[in-house]
Amino acid sequence: MGSNITTSSIIFLLTGVPGLEAFHSWISIPFCFLYVTALSGNSLILFAIITQPSLHEPMYYFLSMLSTTDLGLSMSTLVTMLGIFWFNAREITFNACLFQMFFIKLFTVMESSVLLTMAFDRFVAISNPLRYATILTDSRIVQIGVAIVIRGTLMLTPMVALLKRLSYCSSHVLHHSYCYHPDVMKLSCTDTRINSAVGLTAMISTVGVDSVLILLSYVLIIKTILSIASPEERKKAFSTCISHIGAVAIFYIPLISLSFVHRFGQQAPAYVHTMIANTYLLIPPVMNPIIYSVKTKQIRRAVIKILNSKEA
């Protein structure tokens, strides 16, 4: 099977959890639970922010962007992952694979951008509280949202489009239960150096740059907090950042662990790779609503209010 096969006719085979195929229906139970938690938690937060006028503030608008990207991230993997666990539906066409890969990467990059924007939001709120409302106007928040989507799309389109120029050899078996860029690239029998370079550039210039800027924001935030005179106000200023710090940690730690496992964890059993890869996309969508509901009084009140009104 040489390079005369057209890419559009290629069928890839996704993989569930290698070595544990017999237990797929059992493994699907925790994943279903995680998906239900992620989808209901983020939908609830979005609904609360839209319907409660008290939450119509920049900080919560950014949180609603975070919930939207988390919903997108969950939905991008849901169909193929549960398809494999429930129906052993492993086949995916080349174009569907590119489509899924694009959206997984897009929502990952958007999540990173939103977390950076939230760090900027906290910095402005703490260092310049009087000008906060004039700096972060509604129209500016909309512009930021549009910029986040455009940035992700421009950065990732070449990376995904370039996979079309490769030819794929005899093996079409992917190692994850969704399409993952390095995974697809490995199946090619053409030179993938350009693809690797473009992929790496896209990730460094988005997630890499964002993480450095988030760190920088926190250096400035801490500097500002330390210059506040009363310990009470210091504590109050810092407590508004706690949820965001949590969100940043649960996004970047699994992301970095996955890259490390890919680079250095060759000796680890195959199912370890798969489990990390499967949960890395589910941890932020599951945890973010929980962190924000627990740590942010206004969100907690709004969510309780909505749940009570449904019971009434």
Give keywords:
312 residues; mainly alpha; 12 helices; globular
Structure description:
The chain is built from twelve helices and two strands, in the order βααβαααααααααα. By secondary structure, it is mostly helical. The protein has one domain: Rhopdopsin 7-helix transmembrane proteins (Up-down Bundle). A two-stranded antiparallel ribbon has the order 1-2. This is Olfactory receptor. Belongs to the G-protein coupled receptor 1 family.
Q: What is the tally of beta strands? A: 2
Structural domain count: 1
Q: CATH homologous superfamily? A: Rhodopsin 7-helix transmembrane proteins
Structural class: mainly alpha
Mean pLDDT: 88
Number of helices: 12
Query: What is the overall shape?
Result: globular
Instruction: Write out the strand line-up for the largest beta sheet, numbering strands in chain order.
Output: 1-2
CATH level-3 fold name? Rhopdopsin 7-helix transmembrane proteins
The succession of helices and strands, N to C, reads EHHEHHHHHHHHHH
For the terminal residues, how far apart are their CA atoms? 64 Å
Overall radius of gyration = 21 Å
Largest sheet features: 2 strands, antiparallel
Q: Which runs of at least 5 residues are low in confidence (pLDDT < 50)?
A: none
> Helix proportion of residues, in percent?
over 70%
CATH architectural grouping? Up-down Bundle
Note the beta-strand portion. under 5%
**CATH class, anyone?**
Mainly Alpha
